[in-house]
Specification:
Elements lengths: L1 E5 L2 E8 L4 H14 L4 E11 L1 H16 L7 E4 L3 H9 L7 E2 L8
Parallel strand pairs: 2-3, 3-4, 4-5
Antiparallel strand pairs: 1-2
Helix pairs in contact: 1-2
Pfam families: STAS_2 (PF13466)
Protein name: STAS domain-containing protein
InterPro entries: MlaB-like_STAS (IPR058548), STAS_dom (IPR002645), STAS_dom_sf (IPR036513)
Length: 106
């Protein structure tokens, strides 16, 4: 798992599973503590993901909402079909925020 940060964006690459959750959790919480804007977690280049990994992001989403800072959210970007299906089957879709795709210019 490769973890890259660019300001308020966290880009994950590789396999996001139980083996990498501790590292991702540490970075997510550090970024949530240091900023006042939304944190975007980009999953575009994630090859595979498991339920344990998605739970880490769901708990962090709730933590961000409970922080008491207005406008603070954790958003997921680049969720492929497999990630979306897992979010729906696990009901975590009710907890996480998916970034809306930008409209395609006509």
């Amino acid at each position: 798992m490769q973890i890259l940060t660019d300001g308020r964006h966290l880009v994950l690459r590789g396999d996001f599973d139980a083996r990498s959750t501790d590292r991702v959790r540490a970075v997510v919480y550090e970024l949530l503590e240091t900023g006042d804007d939304d944190l975007v977690v980009d999953l575009t280049d994630v090859d595979s993901v498991d339920l344990t990994a998605l739970r880490v992001l769901a708990v962090a989403t709730r933590q961000a909402a409970r922080s008491g800072r207005p406008g603070r959210r954790l958003q997921l970007r680049g969720c492929n079909g497999a990630v979306r299906r897992l979010l729906h089957r696990s009901h975590l879709i009710r907890v996480v925020h998916l970034e809306r795709a930008a409209p395609v210019p006509a």
